[in-house]
Amino acid sequence: MDFGICALSHVPVRNEPSDKSELVTELFFGECYSLINVQGNWFQVRMAGDGYEGWIDFKQHTPVSATYFQEWKGQAHPRSIDVVQTVSNSQTRIPILMGSTLPFFDGINIRVGEQRYIYNGRASNPNLPNTANFLTKIALNYLKAPYVWGGRSIFGLDCSGFVQQVYGICGYQLPRDAWQQVSHGEEVHFAALTQPGDLAFFDNAEGRIIHVGLLLENSQIIHAHGEVRIDPLDHQGIFNTTRRRYSHNLRIIKRLLP
Description:
Blueprint: E1 3-5, E2 10-14, E3 23-28, E4 32-39, E5 42-47, E6 53-57, E7 62-64, H1 66-73, E8 84-88, E9 93-97, E10 109-112, E11 115-119, H2 132-140, E12 152-153, E13 156-157, H3 159-169, H4 178-181, E14 186-188, E15 199-203, E16 209-215, E17 220-225, E18 227-232, E19 237-240, E20 245-255
Antiparallel strand pairs: 1-4, 1-7, 2-3, 4-5, 5-6, 8-9, 8-11, 10-11, 12-13, 14-20, 15-16, 15-20, 16-17, 17-18, 19-20
């Protein structure tokens, strides 16, 4: 099996091997993956962090050795917490976004395959327990980010991509989609007992989980719906303050933080 790493700010991962295909997620700088299929100029990949699968253009593939891949998987890596930063060496300069992985970061240097880069921005510490206050601070940085189906970037993301990125920066790896994320954590049985950092999940008329958001203080929720926004939450669901009506039906609230 072959392996790779994202060496660009972010790379689109598509449902099928075509530029016209639906965006299902994005690889971010510093994230490893394995190659599981090849079709023409497209590689089907499985992301090392969350196991998600999709297709990337072969031109955006950067190979790494099996040894590097296993070493990468065996460590928790810091993430960039600046909205936009760069990594650089004497040959190149690469823009990266908030939530990017900083492989083997020692405070100055990172190692991306055989390349080494300098990173001078702020980074999370995956070895320290992160509090609800830190989680909330990271989440609020995404306010007004536009909704993009399949996106994970501050310049465009969906509801589960937003939650996955916020928790990932704080050292908690969640699955990619809301229906997968709902299996994590312990249930909070009443909306009035929620704490900042809890996740609220919402379903459709068929009972399928279709939306997720992150709870703040005072029964408010931050979520990606058109944009990353803050709305009130009660036992019924999210009340959209712009349209003055409920937009999502509450199914369950889960607590992941200790």
